[in-house]
């Protein structure tokens, strides 16, 4: 065998002869198979990555559309409030006047204050054994990550009644799948205010579209959703923005004006001017 080398391997079973050409062919074949498998694996991996990227892009577009819808919704509300101010003649002609100065010029009678407290969330919403988590940054008790906590968590035994803090209409009542809230009730109080009640018992007390007034029984506490134990998660939102519920839970006639200093994310001056006119008309009908 010219220009070929032969390797002989002997063992108890006998001798075997291999030529260098055979060995090279096998090595090349193995390398080719490895390269083909590597290439195929790379193609599959890239395909999966492209699929995930496409899904993320699609999700991003969906979230962006939702955000744009909410921004448009808030702009509509803002414009409507400004239109109301203009119609009833309370829009300030001097934009340099501060909200504090405008507030100081508004006076409400005790009766008007009591009526106002029927419309804006205030006071306790349930009997409880203290607050387990406050509003603000915290370490999530289940996910163990630092997250913003948008409400107050009240320690409550199961089936503890929950009451509406103001007049409103039930916007949502049911299982909020995927949100972590579990069974949830949302009440729209008007004037941009909404209240949220999460981790409720599965048996709903109210239904969507139902009108409720301050003190009405709207739900029972539970342990549904992403919850580490029986409690009520309570939120107050203004134009979609979470406010500190503690300011509203502690609000009553005895400290009526304190909330205007504590909760600065609401333009109380324009709201109180509108409410004072509406309440005055209610007290003195033509």
Brief rundown of the structure:
This protein is an alpha+beta fold and 286 residues long.
Distance between the termini: 122 Å
Sum up the overall morphology in one term: elongated
Number of domains: 2
Structural class label: alpha+beta
CATH architecture of the largest domain: Distorted Sandwich
What Rg do the Cα atoms give? Answer: 33 Å
Strand content: 25-35%
CATH topology of the largest domain: Glucose Permease (Domain IIA)
Which stretches are low in confidence, meaning pLDDT under 50 for 5 or more residues running? 87-93
Q: Provide the CATH superfamily of the largest domain.
A: Glucose Permease (Domain IIA)
Largest sheet: 8 strands, antiparallel
* Sequence of secondary-structure elements: EEHHHEEEEEEEEEEEEHHH
User: Number of DSSP helices?
Assistant: 6
CATH class bucket of the largest domain: Mainly Beta
- The amount of helix comes to 25-40%
Which whole number gives the mean pLDDT? 81
Walk me through what this model shows.
The structure is a single chain. The chain has 286 residues and is α+β, with helices and mostly antiparallel strands. The chain folds into 2 domains: 1-89; 118-251, Glucose Permease (Domain IIA) (Distorted Sandwich), CATH 2.70.70. It contains 6 helices and 14 strands. The strands form 4 sheets. Strands 3, 6, 8, 9, 10, 11, 13 and 14 form an 8-stranded antiparallel β-sheet that branches. A two-stranded antiparallel ribbon has the order 1-2. A hairpin with a 2-residue loop joins strand 1 (6-11) and strand 2 (14-19). The radius of gyration is 33 Å and the shape is elongated. The model is unreliable at 87-93 (pLDDT under 50).
């Amino acid at each position: 065998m010219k220009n070929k080398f032969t390797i002989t391997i002997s063992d108890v079973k006998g001798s075997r002869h291999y030529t260098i050409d055979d060995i090279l062919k096998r090595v090349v074949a193995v390398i080719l198979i490895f390269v083909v498998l590597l290439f195929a694996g790379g193609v599959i991996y890239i395909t999966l990555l492209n699929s995930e990227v496409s899904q993320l892009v699609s999700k991003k577009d969906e979230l962006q559309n939702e955000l744009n819808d909410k921004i448009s919704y808030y702009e509509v509300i803002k414009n409507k409030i400004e239109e109301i101010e203009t119609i009833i003649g309370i829009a300030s002609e001097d934009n340099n006047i501060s909200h504090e100065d405008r507030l100081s010029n508004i006076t409400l009678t005790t009766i008007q204050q009591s009526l106002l407290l029927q419309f804006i969330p205030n006071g306790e919403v349930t009997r409880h054994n203290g607050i387990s988590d406050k509003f603000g940054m915290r370490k999530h008790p289940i996910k163990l990550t630092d997250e913003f906590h948008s409400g107050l968590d009240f320690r409550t035994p199961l089936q503890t009644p929950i009451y509406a803090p103001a007049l409103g209409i039930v916007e949502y009542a049911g299982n909020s799948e995927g949100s972590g809230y579990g069974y949830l009730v949302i009440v729209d109080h008007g004037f941009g205010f909404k209240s949220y009640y999460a981790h409720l018992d599965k048996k709903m007390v109210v239904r969507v579209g139902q009108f409720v007034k301050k003190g009405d029984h709207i739900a029972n506490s539970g342990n549904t959703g992403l919850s580490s134990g029986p409690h009520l998660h309570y939120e107050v939102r203004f134009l979609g923005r979470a406010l500190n519920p503690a300011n509203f839970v502690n609000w009553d006639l005895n400290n009526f004006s304190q909330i205007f200093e504590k909760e600065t994310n609401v333009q109380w001056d324009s709201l109180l001017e509108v409410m004072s006119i509406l309440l005055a008309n209610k007290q003195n009908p033509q």
